[in-house]
Amino acid sequence: MPNETCHYLQLDVFAKQAGRGNPLGVVLGADDWPSERMQGFATWTNLVETTFVLPPSEPGASYRLRTFTPGKEIAFAGHPSIGSAFAALHSGFCVAHDGQLIQQCDAGLLPIAIDGEPQCPMLSVAVPAAHIELACHSDMLAVEQLLDGLTLGALPPGLVSGGRRWWLAELADEHQLRAWNAPFAGIAALAKRSNTLGLCLFARSHDPAFELVVRAFPAGAGIVEDPASGAANALIAAYIAQLEPHGALSRGYRASQGREMGRDAMLSLRVQGNGQVWVGGHCALVIDGTLAWP
Length: 294
Fold this sequence. Notes:
Number of helices: 6
Low-confidence stretches: none
Oligomer: single chain
CATH superfamily of the largest domain: Diaminopimelate Epimerase, Chain A, domain 1
Helix content: 10-25%
Number of domains: 2
Mean pLDDT: 96
CATH topology of the largest domain: Diaminopimelate Epimerase, Chain A, domain 1
């Protein structure tokens, strides 16, 4: 109905301060909205993702989450999971039990751990399991062409899936990664041909505040660069843990992402002994109000 209003929050995810992370729109109270209406609002916000927090339909779940890009609904993404959990707690939609929430989404029932101060909690989501895929020769050649002129790091480029599907590549030098001008058209062509989001690059760092620098280019979704990608970082963490099981980063890392876009996001990755990856961070509340959508 035209006069119906819902609770709307807009957050900056993976940052303690507004303007430094990845924006997210969260709608609460749209329990009876059809999918077309949700998609219409998500298209209008033009945010990378907009989510809808709904009553759960699975036993044990704290809430059900639906996540939309401007063009389609997706099963899972990292920063929408973290931000939506923050919104669910902040709004009083649900309460934590034993320091965690359970998110119901199309990727399954995902635990979300809550640590730190209630006013600015660290939220971490257990992401879907990652798998290193066997890439076809022509796609690998395309990746090598995109990286021509760059010095690669210790790990070879690879195709990894788990919640999302990304090409990953390590560069040998943090400064080289930060200065790289990504060829959007080439990454978009690779993403379309291989049915992936695009290319995510990382480099190890000697900065005391973080161990990895990450840049993600989801050209497959029409996005030039992502300021903070939870799902991509989770795949990197799983990739490192599988290929360097005894390495310094095999149990996780802190990642800096988004500085090349004027942001300063910080993500925390943790890998358990069973291979379960958790991706976490803070959120900054920017907008807390109501929306009216036809």
